[in-house]
Amino acid sequence: MSARPTSWLRPVWTFIGLLVAYYAFPLDWTGGSPLVVALSLLGTVGGLALVGTVMVQELGYVRRGVQGRGVRVLAMCLILLVMASSLTFFLLNEIRPEEITGLETRTDALYFTLSTMATVGYGDVHAEGQIARALVCVMIVFNVVVVASLVRAKTRPSIT
Fold first, then answer.
1. Quick one: pLDDT at residue 156?
2. pLDDT score for 29
């Protein structure tokens, strides 16, 4: 049974809403307390961990043959993963600007996240410091192992 065309409206509206929130949320802490930025970064990383945990659990369901979440829920998780990762890189750049070369705006952070997740890496915005490189390594491994496995499992025709 195929999904209705309107069934994808929720993930699309979620994406639009998160994109608006991503750009609208006040994050200009120049001259502000580094503690506030660090706490924001910690909260964002916590959100990433939560989304990652949901996706890893879903992969476990798929491997055990148990009915898990639907494709639309996983699409929303992927959107959250992109937005939270972009915010993480942006906040890391606020704390330690030397970590990621060429990252100055939220669009740069989104561009860097998407090029990293797609493993194309154009080089104009790239991880320079050790913290940024460690985060990029975690993201690449997570994408290759969890995201690619879930996409494959959810798009593979079921044999009944």
1. 67
2. 56
Positions of the chain with pLDDT lower than 50, given as ranges? 1, 160
Rounded CA separation 11/118 (Å): 20
CA distance 105 to 109: 6
CATH classification at residue 51: 1.10.287
CA gap 56, 145 in Å, rounded: 9
Q: What is the pLDDT of residue 1?
A: 47
Torsion, Cα 47 51 56 59, to 10 degrees, reads: 180
What per-residue string of b and e applies to 127-160 under the rule 16 or more CB within 10 Å gives b? beeeebeebbeebeebbeebbebbeebeeeeeee
**Number of structural domains in the chain:** 1
Contact criterion met (CB below 8 Å) for 117 and 144: no
Q: What's the pLDDT score for residue 8? A: 65
Structural domain contains residue 138: yes
